[in-house]
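Propose amino acids for all 50 sites.
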């Protein structure tokens, strides 16, 4: 499974990171991309989840 932090975004109050994870579907075997914008401290936990 490939994973990569793509961009760092800044808003008025806090710094955010956009993370993209490639996930394989059990049903079809095809890969899909899941995107999420979150606090930089939570990125590693989010990427390690299956």
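Proposal:
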């Amino acid at each position: 499974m490939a994973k990569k932090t793509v961009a760092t975004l800044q808003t008025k109050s806090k710094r955010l990171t956009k993370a993209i994870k490639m996930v394989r579907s059990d049903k079809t075997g095809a890969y899909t991309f899941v995107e999420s914008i979150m606090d930089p401290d939570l990125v590693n936990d989010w990427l390690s989840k299956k």
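The beta strands are 3-10, 15-24, 31-38. The mean pLDDT is 81.
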